[in-house]
Amino acid sequence: MQHKRAITFALCVCVAAIGVLPASAGTDAAQSPAASATSDDPTAKEGASLFNQYCSHCHGPWAEQGERPRDLRRLRIRYGDEAREMFSTTVTNGRLEKGMPVWKGVLSDEVLGKIYAFLETVQVED
């Protein structure tokens, strides 16, 4: 199992390195719709930066991903009051069959909490 995690993590790092730069590398934060949503909350603002560093290569910069299964702006629509629990379960255990790596042991609970704080600010209604 540890071997699978290492391979999955290495794959994600490689994909990020060769295919996509974090949004902060070429995008002014003020241009993003998410920037205004997080400007008053330092935790969510830091979470946005962390999201763009670790998650945007699959879920889109600022969580703006049009592909519904990967669109994390729809967590509240899909899971309602259980959105935070689903997020926690998914990032902790991964969904290897769908390409989602296991982040437990890679990112701290504090980092994951900040990422979720950001995601709360970009949830859509429909």
Layout of SSEs?
Blueprint: H1 2-19, H2 23-26, H3 33-38, H4 42-54, H5 56-59, H6 75-79, H7 83-93, H8 109-121
Helix pairs in contact: 4-8
Can you describe this structure?
This protein has 126 residues and is mainly alpha-helical. It has a single domain (2-121), classed as Cytochrome c-like domain (Cytochrome Bc1 Complex, Chain D, domain 2). The chain has eight helices and no strands. Helix 4 crosses helix 8. The protein starts with a helix and ends in a 5-residue tail after the last helix.
Short synopsis of the structure:
With 126 residues, the protein is an all-alpha fold.
The CATH topology name reads Cytochrome Bc1 Complex, Chain D, domain 2
Mean pLDDT metric:
77
Helices, by number, come to: 8
The top-level CATH class is Mainly Alpha
Along the chain, the helix and strand elements come as: HHHHHHHH
Please, how many domains? 1
Radius of gyration, taken over Cα atoms and rounded to an integer in Å:
14 Å
Instruction: Point out poorly predicted stretches.
Output: 1-31
Class derived from helix and strand content: mainly alpha
What's the main sheet like? none
Helix content: 55-70%
Strand content: under 5%
CATH superfamily: Cytochrome c-like domain
Number of E strands: 0
Termini distance?
38 Å
The CATH architecture designation is Orthogonal Bundle
- The gross shape turns out to be globular
